[in-house]
Amino acid sequence: MPFTQEFVESLIKQNQLQLEQIEKLNKTIEELNATIKELREQLNKNSGNSSKPPSSDGLKKKPATKSLRGKSGKKPGGQNGHTGKYLSIVSVSDEIIRHYHPDCAACPHRDKCMEKACTKETRHVIDAVVEVKVTAHEKMYIAECPKCKSSKSGEFPADIVNYVQYGRNLEALAVSLNTVGAVSINRVHEIMGSVFNIPLSTGTIKNMVTRCAKKVKLVLKNIKSALKNSPILHCDETGTRVERKTQWVHDASNDKYNLPDAEQ
User: Fold this and answer.
1) Contact 251/259 with Cβ under 8 angstroms?
2) How many helices (H) and strands (E) does the chain have?
3) In terms of Cα–Cα distance, which of 204, 214, 197 is closest to 178?
4) Chunked in runs of 10, what are the mean pLDDT values of the chain (264 residues)?
5) Cα–Cα–Cα angle for 238, 243, 246, nearest 5°?
6) How far is 222 from 227, CA to CA, in rounded Å?
7) Start-to-end CA span in the chain (Å)
8) Quick one: the chain helix, strand, coil %, rounded to 5?
9) Three-state secondary structure call for residue 234
10) β partners of residue 142
11) 3-class DSSP assignment, residue 196
12) What is the chain's mean pLDDT, rounded?
């Protein structure tokens, strides 16, 4: 059956439309591929391979970094000829314990031998001793002064306000554990009870931290002012796990001062 002119023209027109449609589809596919590539790159970015802050990582853990340094063939640790570092020996010992041969314990000549015994070798043990010191402050009263014939009474120092209270060193330790050491108030309570045998309540510890915060309020204000006027300022963040959640502390600092975000 011979093709008419109209039929041929319709086929050519239809073919042209299909070519245009294919071109549009190819362009759309290229755009979608570019979008997918960009999204994958964004998804794989973290604080270790981009400028994103660690807080943006969420609960995901960064992959362990691999060292690019090749194997040297040497054993790990200090090499031959390396000068090691050891605990420094205290020149004056607080206690000396002398160790003799077991045979010397029941020997009848022990006293005579002890006069001639000498130290063959000395080894030191450096340890920490935890002591609790209780100081009693007594306000004294004199009924009649021999000079002025009147009664006289002493006065307690300004910081001695209660019948029983905790000293500065103990309070500083509790505050340091909670703030510098990032130990919870409940854990500080347990440490004080088990190590020092002091029943320091959680409320008392909280009050200690609050009093310390009030004392350093002016210092923090001066640090904040100094950081604002600093020509160069460094900002960073530190993450920690609290009740199975990631919490972030942001801070600003320069070469002299550092201020957490809670005070900014």
Assistant:
1) yes
2) 6, 5
3) 204
4) 74 88 92 90 76 67 64 72 62 85 88 87 84 92 90 92 91 93 92 90 94 90 91 84 78 87 55
5) 30
6) 9
7) 89
8) 40, 10, 50
9) strand
10) 152
11) coil
12) 84
Each as own residue / partner, the long-range contacts of residues 30-39 (CB below 8 Å, 24 or more positions apart, any chain) are: none
Residue that has been written with the tokens 């004294």 in this structure: 140
Distance CA 168, CA 133 (A): 12
In eight-state DSSP terms, residue 69 is: P
Question: H or E stretch including 152?
Answer: strand 152-153
Nearest to 56, CA basis, from 234, 239, 235: 239
> Which pairing describes strands 234-242 and 152-153: parallel, antiparallel, or unpaired?
unpaired
Q: What is the pTM of this model?
A: 0.54
Residues in a beta bridge with 9: none
Is the CB of residue 16 less than 8 Å from the CB of residue 23? Answer: no
The secondary structure of 161-202 as a DSSP string is -SSS---HHHHHHHHHHHHTS---HHHHHHHHHHHS-----H
- Tens digits of residue pLDDT in 115-162: 888 888 888 888 888 888 999 999 999 999 888 889 999 999 998 999
